[in-house]
Write a structure and sequence with these properties.
By secondary structure, this protein is α+β, with helices and mostly antiparallel strands. It folds into two domains: 125 residues, Thiol Ester Dehydrase, Chain A (Roll); 115 residues, Hotdog Thioesterase (Thiol Ester Dehydrase, Chain A), CATH 3.10.129. The protein contains six helices and ten strands; from the N terminus they run E-H-H-H-E-E-E-E-E-H-H-H-E-E-E-E. Strands 1-3-4-5-2-7-10-9-8-6 form a ten-stranded antiparallel β-sheet. A hairpin with a 2-residue loop joins strand 8 and strand 9.
């Protein structure tokens, strides 16, 4: 299995940032959301770091069965606030690969480090936990990846409700991930779903946007780290409920679809800057 890949350069514009912010639900509460939908004083929802250097061809290059890949968790650490436009060098590698055994698949930890030109210190570090269900039994070490953040057992301090627009996946796919699973009904049916599903990273970004609104007073520069585990698909047109627990500079989070009684994001955690 290939573990390291050549560095690549990417850039993004204010238009890309405006599109990303809209695709994760900013702009619904105006004029409070103005700083995310207007180029004057534009801020990036920090989870945009996951798409400014979007690259999904590594799965084929790594030699895994791409038909049996499942995105399990996503983490991002912002070492500095993400600018609304810029250029980065992206260094991608498989940081770890754990063998679950024959017929049980493998767990891959995929790390991406983003650096701005001329600056050695990273701008952002992303860590994806990926389940390669068709690639176990290769004789690698056993393991399971990072321990999930424990969400409090008590009632949430706040619950935020937000509707997923019927066309939301169509907008989000324009930020980079054009997998037909999220737009083509025939493809979604063949994959075992009733209809196209929302990108997991879209619901993840919506959750981060909720934290920026509710815990950061819409100052996106305060969000230093965000993580969550994907536990079930979300369908466009559904209503999401984000449960939040506040503990100083940390926020725990869980995402639900109440009408189906399903948890779709779990073990969420945001760490805030002062």
């Amino acid at each position: 299995m290939r573990l390291t890949f050549p560095e690549r350069e990417f850039h993004w514009t204010e238009r890309d940032t405006l599109l990303y912010n809209l695709s994760v639900g900013m702009g619904r509460d105006m004029p409070a959301d103005l700083g995310f939908v207007f180029e004057r004083g534009l801020q990036s929802v920090p989870t945009q770091a996951a798409v400014v250097a979007w690259e999904d061809t590594w799965q084929e290059s790594a030699g895994v069965d791409i038909t049996k890949i499942v995105h399990g968790e996503q983490r991002v650490t912002l070492h500095r606030p993400l600018p609304s436009q810029g250029r980065v060098r992206s260094a991608f590698r498989i940081a770890a690969c754990y063998d679950k055994g024959p017929g049980r698949g493998a767990v891959l930890l995929a790390e991406t480090v983003l650096r701005e030109p001329g600056i050695d210190a990273p701008l952002a570090t992303l860590l994806s936990t990926v389940f390669a269900r068709g690639d176990g039994g290769f004789g690698g070490p056993a393991g399971r990846g990072p321990d999930p953040h424990p969400v409090p057992e008590r009632a949430p301090d706040r619950t935020v409700h937000i509707d997923v627009r019927p066309e939301q996946a169509m907008f989000y796919r324009l930020t980079g991930d054009r997998n037909p699973l999220h737009v083509d009904p025939a493809f979604a049916t063949a994959a075992g779903f009733d209809r196209p599903i929302l990108h997991g990273l879209c619901s993840w970004g919506m959750a981060a946007a909720a934290v920026v609104r509710e815990a950061c007073n819409r100052d996106a520069s305060r969000l230093a780290h965000f993580e969550a585990r994907f536990t079930a698909p979300v369908y466009p047109g559904e209503a999401l409920a984000f449960d939040l627990w506040f503990d100083g500079d940390a926020v725990s989070l869980r995402g639900r679809v109440p009408q189906r009684g399903v948890t779709v994001l779990d073990h969420g955690q945001a760490l805030l800057r002062h």
